[in-house]
Each structure stands twice: as structure tokens, then as C-alpha cells.
Design brief:
single chain; about 0% strand
């Protein structure tokens, strides 16, 4: 994975925590920079994984370890999908 150094604005008090971190922490930091884009559906988990140079399941596991669920649907959205699958099943059995 090719990298570049790019400035981002952070509170000055964060500086000691951003320098000289272990690779796994640096990976989490980069993953967290991409998460808002995933949440807003600008990019997919798959695209974020490509950007980070890791398999999609590794990225999903990283977010899971950080307490961020892979499925971020509301209960209503999930119920709609289940109802849709039930309708498809009924059509196939007729």
C-alpha cells in the first residue's frame, strides 16, 4: 500500500498519542478516518478495505473489536428486509 503524509487538524493535546504508535494502533486510526464515510454510505466496507490494503473481513473484525457493528440498520429497516425476503419465498413456492 502506497502512503503519503497529509496534514489533518487535531487538538494539540492529541499530538503525543499520534506519534510513534504501534502498527495495529496506526491501522485502527486509519480505519477510523474512513468509518464516517462508510456510515454515510459514501464508500463501502469493501472499498475502505481496498484503500487500507486489507481483506474486507479484517476491516469488519477491526470495527467489531472497536465496538462498531457491521450491520447498522435500524430495527424498521431490518423488518422491511425480512418481510421482503418472506414475500420472495412465497412467490417461489407458488
Amino acid at each position: 500500500m502506497e502512503t503519503i503524509v497529509t496534514p489533518i487538524s487535531v487538538p494539540k493535546e492529541m499530538t503525543p498519542y499520534l506519534q510513534g504508535v504501534e502498527e495495529n494502533v496506526a491501522f485502527e486510526q486509519r480505519a477510523m478516518l474512513l468509518y464516517p464515510l462508510i456510515r454515510r454510505r459514501v464508500i463501502s466496507h469493501g472499498r475502505a478495505a481496498e484503500i487500507l490494503g486489507v481483506p474486507k473481513l479484517d476491516l469488519i473484525d477491526c470495527y467489531d473489536q472497536l465496538g462498531i457493528p457491521y450491520l447498522n440498520q435500524t430495527r424498521e429497516e431490518l423488518d422491511e428486509e425480512i418481510a421482503g425476503f418472506a414475500q420472495l419465498r412465497e412467490k417461489r413456492t407458488k
